């Protein structure tokens, strides 16, 4: 039996990619596409079981209210969820405890796994540094992902009582050794022809371990979204972040 | 309080490296070094708590018998343990259930983590291939580690119902697509100047994840051995492989 | 003063990308776009100095005849040029010796440089292997570029009297050591999420040199085409391949 | 016919490695080994044709004087040659114009080729950054090689009229974007388990080119020294740097 899927924000670039991915999956059926101005009732009329929402912070809370009230599971990539908003969603879910809602800032499975593996490896190596590489139009350095990765690594090392990475540098040209995020060095490379890449380099006596994620296409969120769609019915309540769905 | 450590096979290349590593660790104390011809009683006389054994299949079973009988924990890198030998060690341990014995084929933490991460990631990606790179004096291709890695990945994919990696190749120069290990392609590169390296490359729509391990020095077993030494007292009975000590 | 540029095959995917690249270049002016059915006279009427031709083997010879007769330089990415066709172009150029024609199978500068550097480095290293990595929809293994790269390396080594790369493999799972192209091992990796990548790995005692080219977008031909457009007026006659324009 | 080779500083670590490399080469014959306290006449008595000098700045000038006067070619890895010293060597060579002297700061062929290729590629790409990776005991960041590489790239770009790499960074955590060497960003990674590595990353629309050098053993100077020994007789006068011997 297939899962009946609806898409919110179906007319946008991301929405179209998700519609295409759902249609290409033999175990999923695309039964409703809703865009700005369309009625949310389209979902209930079509017997939708799961809705994917990649819309806008201004409308996502209303969307979720409707979906939860109508017993429809939701997989949400829309941004702007702070603690207040998450609390509100949780409160609504108490009325319909069988409904599942997944809200994730990043659906690229490779990115999620990279961070998890980095966290797991962190305490076993003397040294660790993060190198993130992006196209030169990026405004922030380091990237948000690199910040989070370094913070997660630093926390894991601190919890295990591992000290700071050794570094005998006495003469440094300003900036050569990168930025310091919670004691982890992060280097931001900006080169034309790149998209979004990150390398976490661990090292100890005689060996290094590298975890590298390369994202060359925005479509990389699709497999993670489909994973959410397939599993959400079995995970009632609110889940934040794709990690729990990976059962690592 | 420091742990009192002894080394068996202390005169060999590996044994010397382990002695040096123990001496360099502030929480460990090297209290006994035993080599061919020396009496095992050296360990009991020195009040040794943990012995590291990197000796030879011909003598390791006798060593373990002595250590277990005397309530000394053992961390063993000696090869040649088949099911019969492991069963024998387990039987001896029933007499001294408080003693811990760790027997591992590979103490390089990076190698152990690589394989574990590859196993965890296996079911999330459409494609996976293994590239192992070694010095040109190596006799076997693929390496034993690459064989095991591919087998572990294949098993994880099969268990999750993931099919074989897609491959539209219709014209192949013999060997170009590598060897087939349980449906996973493995490529063996042999180039002067390399030591021992392995890359597991996963890919799905728009993204790839790479797990790479570089070992450039035989001393890379040392951190894993020290980890075993520190933890063995808290893990009575027989443990095979370093993985359980990593608490992943 | 800007160069007045026309594009043949302007309606195709590649043609559109070239038009966009020309328009974005401050020193170039896009004065004529011609597609199937349009008259070639558009170029002469517009005072075109250089025409870029990414069309089809069926029409390219007629296009070139017209361009040469009218004293217009040509930069050609259309395929299908064998020795007979090249001879014909050379013959036409004797009538208009001031006209320049550049015909190249690959305009990606990174690919051209990779092959040149591989050729230059070939004789200095004991070992060399080629690893090419592509999306899994590719039909041939190795890629055409990998074949040519291996052949060029093999020729450079032979010319310098360098023997075959050392290899002590005695036990090989079929295919593990890759394909043999003129004595150079070539490995073809096919993984979803990849586009087109190639790594040439050289090694000698204690060191390795890697030349890697990553192409993640078909637009990678644009900078090479623009280079050809800018330089063609100064290089009368027929040039085959982008290399001579790089002045290495 | 073999070349008769002598080694100065034969007792040191590097000297021993060179002696071993000479002895392993079928076209070379090790006829004289001289260390501190030994007479330089050992070379003349043994009919030495080429002497390799890896000694000390304090003695190298005297060594060279003797070798040049006796018509013996020299391949020199000793450091400390400034313009004054080079001028002195040139002056001595006017007396014996048939003698060749090669003085090079780096004999690792991979390092020399890397820098050359980086220089050749520099003007064809919008972007370039340098990432150098070393063991954590290194005192200076960036490495001397990275400084020189960046300077060579910057000069080649300036000569070709190529502007600075694009960079839209507006929010930077201090140091994230690396150090600025003549307008080229350089990142210095320090991780245990590494030896000496450098990556030059070029990029333009849709493609990147990476030139990477990995040195994992100090013996990597040997092939470059042997190349010098074999070619020096054919290159009379003073040569600084191994580059000219590579005939690129």
UniProtKB/TrEMBL annotation, chains A, B, C, D:
Reactions it catalyzes: (S)-2,3,4,5-tetrahydrodipicolinate + NADP(+) + H2O = (2S,4S)-4-hydroxy-2,3,4,5-tetrahydrodipicolinate + NADPH + H(+); (S)-2,3,4,5-tetrahydrodipicolinate + NAD(+) + H2O = (2S,4S)-4-hydroxy-2,3,4,5-tetrahydrodipicolinate + NADH + H(+)
Q: What domain of life does the UniProt record list for this protein's source?
A: Bacteria
Q: What Gene Ontology cellular component terms go with this record?
A: cytosol
Q: Does the keyword Oxidoreductase apply?
A: yes
What molecular functions are annotated in GO for this chain?
4-hydroxy-tetrahydrodipicolinate reductase; NAD binding; NADP binding; oxidoreductase activity, acting on CH or CH2 groups, NAD or NADP as acceptor
Where is this protein found? Cytoplasm
At which positions is (S)-2,3,4,5-tetrahydrodipicolinate bound?
135, 144-145
Limits of the Dihydrodipicolinate reductase N-terminal domain: 3-107
**UniProt cross-references to Pfam families, sorted A to Z:** DapB_C (PF05173), DapB_N (PF01113)
Any one Gene Ontology BP term = lysine biosynthetic process via diaminopimelate
Pathway-wise, it operates in: Amino-acid biosynthesis; L-lysine biosynthesis via DAP pathway; (S)-tetrahydrodipicolinate from L-aspartate: step 4/4
**PROSITE patterns reported in the protein's UniProt record:** DAPB (PS01298)
> Which positions does UniProt annotate for NADP(+) binding?
36
The UniProt annotation places NAD(+) binding at: 9-14, 35, 77-79, 104-107
- EC no.? 1.17.1.8
Any idea where the Dihydrodipicolinate reductase C-terminal domain is?
110-243
| Chief localization | cytoplasm
- Which residues are catalytic? 134, 138
Keywords from the UniProt entry: Amino-acid biosynthesis, Cytoplasm, Diaminopimelate biosynthesis, Lysine biosynthesis, NAD, NADP, Oxidoreductase
State whether keyword Electron transport applies: no
Gene3D superfamilies to which the protein is assigned, alphabetical: Dihydrodipicolinate Reductase, domain 2, NAD(P)-binding Rossmann-like Domain
Write out the function statement from the record.
Catalyzes the conversion of 4-hydroxy-tetrahydrodipicolinate (HTPA) to tetrahydrodipicolinate.
Q: How does it assemble?
A: Homotetramer.
Protein family (similarity comment): Belongs to the DapB family.
HAMAP family recorded: DapB (MF_00102)
What is the protein name for this chain? 4-hydroxy-tetrahydrodipicolinate reductase
